[in-house]
């Protein structure tokens, strides 16, 4: 059976060249949405915009990890959605380790010294012996944990219930009984327990890194309570999703020096609005959803691997559960 | 036999407390230079100043890796000099990886973006797949090599003749015959060969890191020829000794964009003079001999280990060869 692929990505030409090189069997290319397109590869927002013109869609491979545009209770679900996984861990680790080192090594202070011709011999800090807390330990979190162990840190992981990474020294979970959190009926009684577990997790950390996907359970999980529980020397890094952070609470925590600093790559609204207070909040460094770019070389490998399974009628890797949202 | 220890370090009290805690046998403390002091622990420059008042000196443990003040043809050599080794590798690795990530992740450009409220989605680079060249692969270089491999780099090592680190993918040496370099009589004919080997080493690098000690063979090894051999996108980091760099040549290379940038922690003259052109050279980041601080906890462990050998009459670890200079 022949398959028709539509590529919906900014780097379309790069992707096409890389896929053509692989000479995949039974695969033709479409250049625009059409009735006979059964496979798409691309950015979730562009896939969403094309969905109505893709009646035969059987499989969509997202080039991003986050697929929010394709989720929601009214979203079409009559196709298999796979996302990009296993390719961002290394890039995210570089980002997290890079900014932790910038913090410990006081890079910006040294730059100030240099600009003022100050020979400043004051000692810098080190990652060794520090404790890092990961909110979410999926494939990306596991890679960050591995890098943290490489640099001699103690690693705490906060997950719903999974304990799959051997690089996490201590796991924390929302509730004493694993089954409660997703049971909506007990949400009211669960909330205080979740708060307790999170505060317990946060209180011993030097660094807190959010890597959670955006789901109903993770929204504003980084709130006043959690930020208050962090030690005042703690640094917060968000490489997950902006929705996980109560942005007003974070601004207050930074303004009042409740924590030492924050590094944000993701925001509730992107691009960040020009009048957003984050632009001028003290001790806050921002990047612009660039922590782990989707490199066509990486994503194409993943697409080819999945296409071979797809063409053989086998189950695909990295399938998204429309219900869970990741 | 009883031993008398004099501590000559800024952190004297910290060192004394840590050593007292260890309750070493046969060890008393002196508070100033005296005839019966046979052991000193401290900074090389302070040890040098006290040498004339230490007639019974048998062993000096430096808290630094570099011991230049205690070397030279007229220096006293009737005692065992040991330096600090094996404790700086992790700190140096943090420094090198931190500044490589700052470079690849365009941290300063992102900061500029933030200051100008610019949402800049342009992609950042990655360490993965890059080639790093280490000038000198001793215990520190081996640790930097290990960190480079962790982040997926190819590691080239330039050494006199040793090939001891398994984390170095390819070694380069000054000459085809290992024995020539230290043979002064052949220096004239050796020089062109050394230049060729260095240029060959440099031409394939994305990053060049100097970790060499300061010896007659390493002075100004980073000169115009070597800098010209580097690709124009290369970054140079010096965590070894300032004497290894021809500073005028480096300033010229940076001013003419022959290389992408430099990060310097060490200088020919320290503190760097106020009128030194480095303060205002473009694409140059400086720190102030703070890349790998001597942490009393680390150094004391090393001293205690050596003291036990000393007290037992056994050979000490990390002995400096007064002739070779390291």
List key phrases describing it.
326 residues; Rossmann fold; 2 domains; alpha/beta; five-stranded parallel β-sheet; homodimer; seven-stranded parallel β-sheet
Task: Give a topology summary.
The structure is a homodimer of 326-residue chains.
Chain A (H helix, E strand, L loop, with lengths): L2 E6 L3 H10 L5 E4 L8 E4 L1 H7 L8 E4 L17 E3 L6 H16 L2 H9 L15 E5 L3 H12 L3 E5 L11 E3 L14 H16 L4 E4 L13 H6 L5 E4 L8 H9 L5 E4 L19 E3 L9 H16 L15
Parallel strand pairs in A: 1-2, 1-3, 3-4, 4-5, 6-7, 6-9, 7-8, 9-10, 10-11, 11-12
Helix pairs in contact in A: 1-9, 3-5
Which CATH-level-2 architecture of the largest domain in chain A?
Answer: 3-Layer(aba) Sandwich
Shape of chain A: elongated
- Kindly state the mean pLDDT of chain A as a whole number? 93
Low-pLDDT runs of 5+ residues of chain A are 177-187
Question: In total, how many domains does the architecture of chain A comprise?
Answer: 2
Tell me the Rg of chain A in angstroms. 22 Å
Content of β-strand of chain A: 15-25%
What can you see in these coordinates?
2 copies of one chain form a homodimer. In chain A, α1 (12-21) crosses α9 (296-311) and α3 packs across α5. Chain A is 31% helix and 15% strand. Chain A has 2 domains: 3-86 and 294-311, Rossmann fold, CATH 3.40.50.720; 89-286, 3-Layer(aba) Sandwich (Rossmann fold). The longest helix of chain A has 16 residues, at 89-104. Chain A has 9 helices and 12 strands. The first copy, chain A, has 326 residues and is of the alpha/beta class. In chain A, the strands form 2 sheets. In chain A, strands 8-7-6-9-10-11-12 form a 7-stranded parallel sheet, with helices on both faces. Chain A has a 5-stranded parallel sheet with strand order 2-1-3-4-5, sandwiched between helices. Chain A is elongated and about 65 Å long. Chains A and B meet through α3 and α4 of A and α3 and α4 of B.
């Amino acid at each position: 059976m022949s398959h028709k692929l539509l590529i919906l990505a900014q780097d379309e030409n790069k992707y096409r060249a890389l896929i053509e090189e692989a000479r995949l069997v039974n695969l033709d290319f479409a250049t625009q949405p059409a009735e006979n397109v059964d496979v798409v590869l691309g950015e979730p927002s562009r896939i969403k915009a094309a969905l109505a013109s893709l009646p035969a869609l059987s499989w969509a491979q997202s080039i991003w990890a986050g697929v929010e545009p394709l989720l929601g209770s009214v979203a079409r679900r009559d196709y298999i959605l796979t996302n990009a996984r296993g390719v961002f861990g290394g890039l995210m680790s570089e980002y997290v380790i890079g900014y932790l080192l910038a913090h410990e090594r006081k890079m910006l202070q040294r730059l100030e010294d240099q600009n003022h011709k100050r020979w400043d011999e004051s000692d810098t800090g080190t990652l060794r012996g520090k404790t890092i807390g990961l909110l979410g330990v999926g494939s990306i979190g596991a890679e960050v944990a591995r890098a943290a162990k490489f640099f001699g840190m103690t690693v705490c992981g906060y997950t719903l219930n999974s304990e799959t990474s051997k690089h996490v020294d201590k796991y924390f979970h929302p509730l004493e009984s694993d089954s409660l959190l997703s049971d909506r009926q007990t949400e009211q009684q669960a909330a205080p327990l979740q708060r307790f577990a999170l505060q317990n997790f946060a209180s011993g950390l030097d660094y807190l890194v959010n890597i959670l996907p955006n789901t109903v359970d993770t929204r504003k999980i980084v709130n006043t309570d959690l930020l208050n529980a962090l030690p005042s020397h703690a640094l917060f890094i968000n490489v997950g999703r902006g929705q996980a952070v109560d942005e007003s609470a974070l601004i207050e925590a930074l303004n009042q020096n409740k924590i030492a600093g924050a590094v944000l790559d993701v925001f509730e609204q992107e691009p960040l609005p020009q009048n957003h207070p984050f632009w001028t909040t003290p001790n806050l460094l921002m990047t612009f959803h660039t922590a782990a770019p989707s490199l066509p070389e990486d994503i194409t490998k993943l697409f080819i691997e999945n296409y071979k399974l797809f063409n053989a009628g086998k189950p695909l890797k990295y399938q998204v559960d429309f219900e869970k949202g990741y």
